[in-house]
Design brief:
The protein is α/β, with parallel strands linked by helices and 383 residues long. The chain is built from twelve helices and eleven strands. A seven-stranded mixed beta sheet has the order 1-9-8-5-4-2-3, sandwiched between helices. A two-stranded antiparallel sheet has the order 6-7. Strands 10-11 form a two-stranded antiparallel sheet. Strand 6 and strand 7 form a beta hairpin. The structure holds pyridoxal-5'-phosphate (PLP). The site of pyridoxal-5'-phosphate has 15 residues, from helix 3 and helix 4.
Length: 383
């Protein structure tokens, strides 16, 4: 009943609009791969790695099968294992801590900053102390550039250096963003990113990459991604994975990288328009000084005590999708409850998991549609 009066649904992430913009160029890139038939290790893989290195400023780019494998491969290359601790934020996607646990090392979860949602350096210090108290050897820290915004890399590097930890930046959501004028990809020992289709730079399947300036690490990663190959793939000098990015995805990413800067600029315009429109009815995300974002998500915080389910339902009734990243922080998840957390607990992560909600965000969100979303947010908060 009254179907014709229902407002039309809008997409949360508009992959179709981007597909239309790129149309022929993607079809032709895929067709080139279908013609040369080098489905793994084709020329597009080498070309993409060179272009990502030029884009980010990193010396080496090792493309791989996913963002999860990108994190795992670095931890494997560094020989992480039982008795080692890796400090991670808890308010993030599970893969950040999961890859640590997969190596046999122990993830130690720390809290995030209330304003930026990124790792809180003070909690990082407490996490290192908690790891030591638990008899573990802290070896690494994995800051996450959450929702697209760069973490506070200088503050984290200073603490990591003092404690003798290496930094593995999880830029799965933040690739393309910068910190103090420098693009992500060159902070710490290595940076991992994801090309999952919904990411700001996404392919049409699973994919990822590791960026590093370290020659030795890059060589180990190239070996790990092909089952620990030595002189060839039937000479196995270490444990590894089927960790390659396939040529088709590389060909697609080459085309998408051409418009990535333009898309980042559009995403920033969308974020600015949201910030102006939302005013003080909800807490809009804030960029820290020196940090930029690629706005993988536009995540707002509802006032304490708001009914988040009712808010989401009110927007849904108007054809506006929302998503909750993340309804539980990692340390609250069944699979991770037994791992240590920083002393004093993680109150900010837990509060954010209860209060945040993400609005539609992509480079093709037009002003009229955005006005509709902003009006719906105002309406939901008044209702
Ligand atoms: C912060 C973070 N780390 C790691 C990953 C894992 O990436 P992938 O899905 O490509 O394995 C994701 C992807 O969602 C992520 O958001």
């Amino acid at each position: 009943m009254n179907q014709h009066l229902r407002p039309s649904s809008i997409p949360f992430i508009d992959v179709v609009a981007q597909r239309q913009r790129l149309g022929k160029s993607i079809d032709e890139a895929v067709s080139r791969v279908l013609t040369h038939c080098q489905f793994l290790g084709g020329p597009e893989v080498t070309q993409l790695e060179a272009e990502l290195a030029a884009f980010s400023g990193a010396k080496h780019v090792v493309s791989c099968s996913s963002g999860t494998d990108a994190l795992l491969m670095v931890l494997m290359a560094k020989g992480l294992g039982p008795g080692d601790a890796v400090i991670c934020p808890s308010f993030t996607f599970c893969a950040t801590g999961e890859t640590v646990a997969l190596t046999g090392a122990t993830p130690v979860f720390v809290d995030v900053d209330e304003e930026t949602f990124n790792m809180d350096p003070a909690s990082l210090k407490r996490g290192i102390a908690s790891a030591r108290k638990a008899g573990l050897k802290p070896k690494a820290v994995i800051p996450v550039d959450l929702f697209g915004q760069s973490a506070d890399h200088d503050a984290i590097a200073a603490i990591a250096d003092e404690a003798g930890l290496f930094v593995l930046d999880d830029a799965a959501q933040g690739f393309g963003a910068s910190y103090k004028g420098r693009r992500l990809g060159t902070f710490g020992l290595a940076t991992a990113t994801s090309f999952f289709p919904a990411k700001p730079l996404g392919c049409f399947g699973d994919g990822g990459a590791i960026l590093t300036d370290d020659d030795e690490l890059a060589a180990s990663l190239r070996s790990i991604r092909v089952h620990g190959q030595g002189t060839d793939k039937y000479d196995n000098v270490r444990l590894g994975l089927t960790g390659r990015l396939d040529t088709m995805q590389a060909a697609i990413l080459i085309e998408k990288l051409k418009i990535f800067d333009d898309e980042i600029a559009s995403r920033n315009k969308v974020a600015e328009r949201y910030a102006r429109g939302l005013g003080n009815v909800v807490k809009a995300p804030r960029l820290a000084k020196g940090c930029t974002s690629v706005w993988a998500q536009y995540t707002i915080r509802l006032p304490r005590g708001s009914n988040r389910d009712a808010f989401a339902a009110a927007l849904k009734a108007q054809g506006i999708p929302t998503a909750i990243y993340y309804p539980k922080s990692i340390h609250q998840q069944t699979a991770y409850r037994h791992y240590p957390v920083a002393e004093g607990g993680l109150p900010v992560s837990e509060a954010l998991s209860a209060d945040v909600i993400s609005l539609p965000m992509h480079a093709y969100l037009d002003a009229a549609t955005q006005d509709r979303i902003v009006a719906a947010v105002h309406g939901a908060m008044q209702g």
